[in-house]
Amino acid sequence: MHLSKSVFFSASFILPVLLSHTANADQLPIQVQFPPLAMEDAPRGGAHPIGGPANVFIDNANELLGALDLELIYHVSGKTPESDRGTVQPSLVSIPENFSNLYEAVAAGPNADGLAAAISVPISSGLESGQLLVAGLPFGLHPSEFASWLISGGGLELEQDIYNEAFDNNLVVVPIALTPGQEAGFFPEPLPTSMTEMCQQPWLARWPAPASAIWQQACQTAGVETTNIGAETLCADPTAACPSEGNPVKHDINALTFGGFQPGRLPQQLRQLDQVDAYELNLPYTGVLMMKRALGLESESNDTVDLSPIIEKAPYFYLNAWHQSFSYIELLVNRQVWDSLSEAQRVAIRTSGQASILETLSSGLEAQGKAIEILKRNGAEVNEWPDELLKPLEEATMPYLESRAEANSAEGDDSYRRVLDHMRSYQEDRQTYFDAADAPR
Fold first, then answer.
1. SS3 labels along the chain
2. Per-residue model confidence (pLDDT) at position 13
3. Do 222 and 113 sit in the same domain of this protein?
4. 130 lies in a domain?
5. Residue of higher predicted confidence among 381 and 441
6. For residues 104-115, average pLDDT
7. What is the mean pLDDT of residues 335-360?
8. Is the pLDDT of residue 202 over 80?
9. Domain residue limits at 28
10. Is the pLDDT of residue 161 over 80?
């Protein structure tokens, strides 16, 4: 794995004012909640689906900023995993206790005990619109179409306007990474082709919002009531085998149930312990790497690693993820810090962000074919989501999104409504071309 020099600890680093200063260049610390994750056969930047692309951007930016007397420094908050101890700086910067998230801390800025800059995903902003920005609309824009909406179609301007209102004009947003469409997940049995039968499966599925809510609405239309138990798993202790001595089954699952979003726990770990029945997580290649991590095999080559202990628990692997067409990652800079940079430095950062979007999208697409072959070699049976299930799910999507937008607006947050309407309008105006561009194969 390639690692930039910028991620290594510099004892001279201090942050008394907006930017720290060394004899050679100013240093701008970038707070990232996730380490890049050093691992055998990881993509450039690292294995983590957010920390890795963040590292790619910082590396790319520093190639340009070196001639402009500025260096971006990668930081992580919280405990750094053993595998990354040599590749990320100690936690000199973390989210201060008086801020609920990175966005608030960056808006406050370092002179108010906040942060100078951070890399995160919009869903962490505390705004409802973040749920639509981080992965798009279900059955919505493809990654390249989203990039067009964001960069050329007014999406970024809308996002900046929303942040200006929410954070008192103290936050500057720069897009820095875009990864391709997600996998649709692993299941213990083949998916039925009847929606009613699908909803009646006694499975606990680790599935994200809003997809889980849309799925529940489609099940309700099919006459089946489903449940969402949030972070809870089948047994009370998610770190132990389920069931096992002292860890009996807590939930009697009689129909499709959603849950298992345990902080710090990989879904592959939960599946291995029988704490969930089905799960999804990011790209197929990320799935391979996280299976290795769950099994403690980070140093093993992808060509020889044995992933079967996890795959055999849920071997039916589905593609065409209707629920999450991409992942969008952004840089946040305190407005006062941003304004203190030279125009050339700001241009270099924005240019590096666009270059990193191209790199993360193209390299992500390139890696997935091999990842699927690795999964198949380890026992996965690759399928596409049945059309009979896609239709009722798609029919349930816009009614759910509309009801969510109305509810959020009634509570005083219209950001969801604004992003939903803007993104839908952009897609509808270009749908004829988008459909034609998806040439049959």
1. CCCCHHHCCCCCCCCCCCCEECCCCEEEEEEECCCCCCCCCCCCCCCCCCHHHHHHHHHHHHHHHHHHCEEEEEEECCCCCHHHCCCCCCCCCCCCCCCCCHHHHHHHCHHHCCCCEEEECHHHHCCCCHHHHCCCCCCCCCHHHHHHHHHCCCHHHHHHHHHHHHCCCCEEEEEEEEECCCCCEEECCCCCCCHHHHHCCCCEEECCCCHHHHHHHHHHHCCCCCEECCCCCCECCCCCCCCECCECECCCCCCCEECCCCCCCCHHHHHHCCCCCEECCCCHHHHHHHHHHHCCCCCCCCCCCCCHHHHCCCCEEECCCCCCCCEEEEEEEEHHHHHHCCHHHHHHHHHHHHHHHHHHHHHHHHHHHHHHHHHHHCCCEEECCCHHHHHHHHHHHHHHHHHHHHHHHHCCCCHHHHHHHHHHHHHHHHHHHHHHHCCCC
2. 29
3. no
4. yes
5. 381
6. 94
7. 97
8. yes
9. 5-180+326-367
10. yes
